[in-house]
Automatic annotation (TrEMBL):
Species per Swiss-Prot/TrEMBL record: Amycolatopsis endophytica
Protein name: Putative anti-sigma-YlaC factor YlaD
Region (Disordered): 198-240
Listed Pfam families: zf-HC2
Source taxon at top rank: Bacteria
Keywords, in A-Z order: Membrane, Transmembrane, Transmembrane helix
Presence of keyword Magnesium: no
Residue spans crossing the bilayer: 81-100, 120-136, 143-161, 173-190
Annotated Putative zinc-finger domain residues: 3-36
Amino acid sequence: MDCATAREAISATLDGEEPGVDAAALDQHVARCPACLAWQDDAAAVTRLARLEPALPSPDVTGRVLDHLPSPPAKVDWPRWTLVFAAIAQLSLVVSQLFLPQPMAGGMTVQPGSHLEHEAVAFNFAIAVALLWAASRPRQARSQLPVLLSFTVVLVALSLFDVLGDRVGWQRLVSHVPLLLGVLCALLVARRDGRRPWPGARAKSGQAVDAATDGGRYETAGPGARSRERQPPAARRNVA
């Protein structure tokens, strides 16, 4: 038995673990090796001091932890309910465009059945689905923002252009108010719930994580790193 194996077995024995070697062979090696005998005495003294040493007061990190926790949702989650209301308003607009004439500026109306109306119906129906998705899955509300924001920005810009050209009436413009309100609430929900971690989420491989207590850093093993998870406890110890 070499000294490295003996000292690893001694360390495991002091910690109440299986040494992984024959106890009689370990005793024989320590008896004839003064260096390992001295190492055993020193390790036993250090172990005893560590067990008898009073625990130092740890820093209070309660405030830091509470500051990073998301605020509890209100009893009435009005942004999500507003999203549902905006989605219902969009669906009602879809029904009206399918079956009712649409008033325009100058007393003109657009009759249902044209292809342009059908395209508007398809867009409004898709927007209603996006609003409902954001309301039902608030943690995924961010995925709907590109569609909702792009549609809203283009719609607002073209509506201003039509108002200046006297090509649209106020009745038509008022129908867009629920959409604007829904997009605003989608932004609020995405900003609020998008920061909450998923249950069981794990750090990516190779990603360093800051320790909350002492500012240290712990790194996860990379994909090609040798796993030490299933090795016996004695094999995971560094030989002193």
